[in-house]
Amino acid sequence: MTAEQVIEARHSVRKYDSSVVIPQEELDDILRLAAKAPSSWNLQHWRFLVVTDQAVKEKLLPIANGQQQVVDASATIIILGDLEADKSARPIYEAAVTNGYMDERVRDIMIGQIEGAYKTNPQFARDEAIRNSSYAAMQLMLAAKAKGYDTCPMGGYNRDALIEALNIPPRYLPTLMISLGKARVEAYPSARFGLDELVIQNQF
């Protein structure tokens, strides 16, 4: 499919064929494509907590308010935002210098910007974690559709219970759950606003 066809074809699926197992190679390819998403300063603020073990998926069911897709989907992926993404700056930019993408002067300027931003505003790290991990989440859903799989983003879950159940370190903030698999029942149609409702030209 073209990029346009993938976007048009992606819908949120809530009923999955629980017999489907995604080959690890295909799952890895979806995650690899998701990780190509853009991010502020290229800090790649996302981590993917991939749940395929049935017992662990069952543990997620009450945490996700009984949403059956977390159990029936081939995988439930928890998108994590990195609250300490500034710690990734040095290895990322050192690699950029080593590979000839930038010189040491630019590296030092960029790292200084990042460290300054993260030190001066405690809310900044949280905002960046949510914003940038959301880019990867959307890209994951489009990559999955391009590979013939269905997804559904879920925000309805108990974050504290999820952190406790899956031993998520304080560095990472769960920002979204995504079910991934093959639809047992196709997604139902949804009404969408036209551009006349959505687009503001130049200013209000």
UniProtKB/TrEMBL annotation:
Keyword hit for Ion transport: no
Q: Which Pfam families match?
A: Nitroreductase
Give the stretches traversing the membrane: none
Residue ranges annotated for the Nitroreductase domain, each copy included? 7-182
User: What is the name listed in the Swiss-Prot or TrEMBL entry for this protein?
Assistant: Nitroreductase family protein
- Give the GO molecular function terms: oxidoreductase activity
Keywords (alphabetical) are:
Oxidoreductase
UniProt record similarity statement: Belongs to the nitroreductase family.
Q: Do you know which SUPFAM superfamilies this protein is assigned to? A: FMN-dependent nitroreductase-like
